[in-house]
Structures are given as C-alpha cells and as structure tokens.
Design brief:
Blueprint: E1 8-13, E2 18-26, E3 34-38, H1 48-60, E4 64-67, H2 84-98, E5 102-108, H3 110-123, E6 130-137, H4 143-148, H5 154-163, E7 165-168, E8 177-180, H6 181-189, E9 203-208, H7 216-224, E10 231-236, H8 246-265
Parallel strand pairs: 3-4, 3-5, 5-6, 6-9, 9-10
Antiparallel strand pairs: 1-2, 2-4, 7-8
Length: 266
C-alpha cells in the first residue's frame, strides 16, 4: 500500500515577511538521484502525475521531493503575488531544505520553465545538488511572452493597465485563471528561449499534439535551444496538456526510469 508522506515546511521571505512552503519529502537510496517535482501554473504537489511519481519512488526506493509554490496548495501566500522569480526562489529553497546530492527534475507545463531556470541557478551555487536528468511534460518555457502576450486582446490589455491583472475562463475548473501584469513583466526577465540552454544532463520532453495550451511547435522550438544536450522528444499523437491518462502516466514513469538508470550507470 502506498505510504502517504506527512507535510513539512520551510520558510521564505519575498520581501513582505516570512511565508511557509509546504513540502512532502520521501527518503530513499543515497546512491541514486532524488526525484524533484515542479508543478504547473496553479497546480500543486497532490496532482495525479505527482502522486504517481511518488508511488514509483516508493516502489523503487528513491528519494522524492514535492512542494507547493507560495500561493499554491498547502503553502502560504497569495497566488496573485506570484511571479516566475518568486516561484523559482521557492523551488530552490525547497531543494536546499531537502539537501539531496543528486537530483532528477520532473517539470510539468510552467514547471518545465522553472526546471530550466533552476538548472541555470544551481550551476552557480556552491554545495548545490548535481542535476542528472530533466523530464519536461508539456513544457511551457517563456509562456508569458511567447504564448500569452502575443494573443492579448484589447479588453485584456485594458484590464492589465487599469487593475493589474486579467482573468480568463479555465477548462480545468470553475475558477478563472488569473494573469497579472507583474507575472508578465517578470516573465521577460526569466526568458530562456533567447540563447543556448546548457543543462549538462539528458533531457526528455513529452508533448501532446492535441495540447490546447502549449502547441507542440513550442516543444520543437525548445529543442533548438538545447543543441549541446542529449534530448529525446516524445510526441503523443492524441495527448492533451494534462498528460494524466493511465497511458500518459505509464509513459512518464518509464521516462523517469530511463533517466534514473542512465544516472546510475553514469
């Protein structure tokens, strides 16, 4: 039976006082990399994919790090205060608190962007864990400037200027999705599709061809910015953005297994 892990916390201060970041840490083999889950925009560490990965980690005796960005899930803070820089800082704080020596990051949607930024930041940190693999699921690097801003309508631009945010109906739930002017502005400062991205590790991208949020051409574009890495792209003919069907979960777990196996061999 799958053992649920209790919540622990680390704290971060984004300039307005201390906030708690909720985490679920699974201990595991020290001679293999820990798995780290980076959720998508508005998602949390208890989603279908995260839970499936945690069950896999338990089965394989692997350590796993899950956490909620501030303003998400069980963490403190307001979602509308969030930016890529803040959520990146949350991610790095959670990894530092867990203290693994080697990691494989699995990033979903926006989490794929944050994973690429985390690799860049971890390279510059002393005592940071070594990133030994990246699995990017429907990755959305630079989605604010590449996918949202080009399609802004007059009413949305007006809302951004007058109230600092706009809302759009979500196909994933009853609540509308909020995008703030601060998020869009900060997104420009965190762009990764403006030069070569050197991760120094194998990268596996899984992308649905029927994704309504991130077109598969975006995954192809990302590949052109990863010329130095060993990159595998899996295009799922009937895959959507969530990639949460049983066959998608199986594909994800298999890809993680390959990355873990490659890291162990290395």
């Amino acid at each position: 039976m799958h053992q649920d892990i209790g919540v622990s916390y680390t704290e971060i201060d984004h300039g307005e006082g201390s906030l708690k970041i909720a985490m679920r840490l699974r201990s595991g083999s020290s001679d293999r990399p820990a798995l780290v889950w980076f959720a998508g925009y508005g998602s949390d560490m208890l989603g279908t994919k995260a839970e499936a990965l945690d069950a896999y980690a338990e089965e394989e005796g692997l350590a796993m790090i899950r956490f909620d960005y501030t303003g998400h899930g069980e963490s403190e803070g307001a979602f509308a205060d969030g930016t890529i820089s803040r959520w990146l800082a949350d991610s790095l704080a959670a990894i530092a608190k867990a203290g693994p020596e080697r990691i494989i990051i699995i990033g979903s949607s926006m989490g794929g962007w944050l994973a690429l930024r985390a690799v860049q930041e971890l390279k510059n940190k002393a005592d940071a864990p070594k990133v030994e693999g990246l699995l990017l699921l429907a990755p959305a690097p630079d989605f604010t400037s590449e996918l949202i801003e080009p399609d802004l309508k007059e009413a949305e631009c007006k809302a951004l200027a007058e109230q600092g945010y706009f809302e759009e109906a979500s196909i994933y739930g009853p609540e509308p999705t909020i995008y703030t002017a601060a998020l869009l502005d900060d997104g420009r400062r965190n762009r990764v599709l403006n030069g070569i991205i050197e991760t120094g590790c194998p990268v596996h991208i899984i992308q649905g061809k029927q994704d309504p949020d991130v077109p598969y051409s975006h995954a192809l574009k990302l590949m052109t910015h990863l010329p130095a890495d060993d990159v595998v792209l899996t295009l799922v003919q009937d895959g959507d953005h969530r990639l949460s069907r049983p066959e998608d979960i199986e594909r994800m777990v298999r890809a993680v297994g390959n990355l873990v196996g490659g890291a162990a061999a290395g």
